[in-house]
Amino acid sequence: MAMVTPTHVAPLREAVSFAVKAGGAESTVAMYLADSGVPSSWVSWLGDDPLGWRLLDEVRASGVDVAGVQLVPGAPTGVYFKDPGDGETTVYYYRAGSAASRMDATVLAQLDWEGVAALHVTGITAGLSASCSAMLEAVMLEARRRAITVSFDVNYRPGLWSIEAAGPRLATLAALADLVFVGRDEAETLWGEGHPATLHSRLGLHGSLVVKDGSVGATEVAVVDGSVSSAFVPAHPVDVVEAVGAGDAFTAGYLGAMLGGEPVDACLNRGHGLAARTLGSTHDFVPA
After folding, report:
1. Which residue, 9, 29, 35, 21, is CA-closest to 79?
2. At what angle do helices 246-259 and 264-279 cross, to 10 degrees?
3. Which pLDDT value is given to residue 62?
4. How many helices and strands in the chain, by DSSP H and E?
5. Would you kindly state where each structural domain of the chain is located, as residue ranges?
6. Is residue 227 pLDDT above 90, yes or no?
7. Closest Cα to residue 182, out of 152, 221, 215, 137?
8. What is the full DSSP assignment across 193-229?
9. Residues 121, 110: contact at Cβ < 8 Å?
10. Of 38, 107, 162, 191, which has the fewest beta carbons less than 10 angstroms from its beta carbon?
11. Are 285 and 31 in contact, with CB atoms under 8 Å apart?
12. Where does residue 117 rank: exposed (0-12), middle (13-18), buried (19+ CB within 10 A)?
């Protein structure tokens, strides 16, 4: 998606100049991974329009392989606007009918799985449309069939769908993943439970669950040989400028460390490090 932000910190209705950058959960994770030296690819559909070309160029310039991105004629590129406020930024999304919302099962046939160690997807895609939701499940199942690690960030967006629709569907998708990321607040909203071990059991997960609890820290829960293991790492202290994008930065930091063979504590700590970098900025992606 294209991210539009006031050039100077001011409410959207008062701003007179704006910056346009690449945004969106999956592309941000891919850019952070590439920035840290981890080869990454991004698969999506963009509009065959100036915004789509601009995003493609920007993500490619960050070092991400964009061979899997398709430009769709006649479909717009999704856009979101940041509206800075007193202590909190509101985000307005415009993606109904976007190229990304039209993704379907044909994506599966276009994927190049050669050398892929992990697949990362988010619940945002599932909320875009029924075809996106079906495509996402098919891609996750195919990755599992190929013994590729599947990472899933719940990323519930109330503007896309209701709790009643999202809760069961996101739980189904989470159960397909080897590694699930979720914020404690969104877990409580979706499933009425934020305690990591209880949530892991309630969702029937077969892999690891990472519950992010803002400035408190993050906890990973896994079941190994029938026993529950848990690890907690506190968040890094930081003067927060803006929280948007910090969750994706955390995920990228964790995945980069995991793919490098680091232990759980190090993965969580790396996640906090990238999240802190993002929290101190108004940008979703803050390169090293």
Report:
1. 21
2. 150
3. 98
4. 10, 12
5. 2-280
6. no
7. 152
8. ---HHHHHHHHT-SSEEEEEETTTEEEEEEEETTEEE
9. no
10. 162
11. yes
12. exposed
Among residues 35, 153, 178, 248, which one is catalytic?
Answer: 248
Q: How far is CA 15 from the centre of its chain?
A: 28
- Annotation: CATH topology of 2-280: UDP-N-acetylmuramoyl-L-alanine:D-glutamate ligase (3.40.1190)
| Residue 248 annotated as catalytic | yes
DSSP code, position 102: G
Dihedral sign of CA atoms 42, 45, 48, 50 in order? negative
Across the beta sheet with 18-22, the strand order is 18-22, 2-6, 79-84, 89-94
Amino acid at 8: H
42-57: average pLDDT: 98
Q: Kindly state the tokens that stand for 288.
A: 């090293």
Burial of 128 (0-12, 13-18, 19+ CB in 10 A): buried
Which residue in this structure is represented by tokens 């160690």? 117
pLDDT in tens, 264-284: 999 999 999 999 999 999 889
Answer for the pair 93, 159: CB distance below 8 angstroms, yes or no. yes
**pTM flag (> 0.90):** yes
* Sole residue written with tokens 């006649």: 74
Nearest to 122 by CA among 233, 20, 21, 28: 28
Residue burial 174-204, b: 16+ Cβ < 10 Å; e: rest: bebbbbbbbbbebbeebbeebebeebbeebe
Angle 91-23-88 from CA coordinates, rounded to 5° = 30
Q: What single DSSP character describes residue 249?
A: H
Query: Would you state the pLDDT for residue 85?
Result: 84
Q: Taking Cα atoms as reference points, which of 21, 40, 147, 14 lies closest to residue 80?
A: 21
Q: For tokens 């003067």, what's the residue?
A: 239
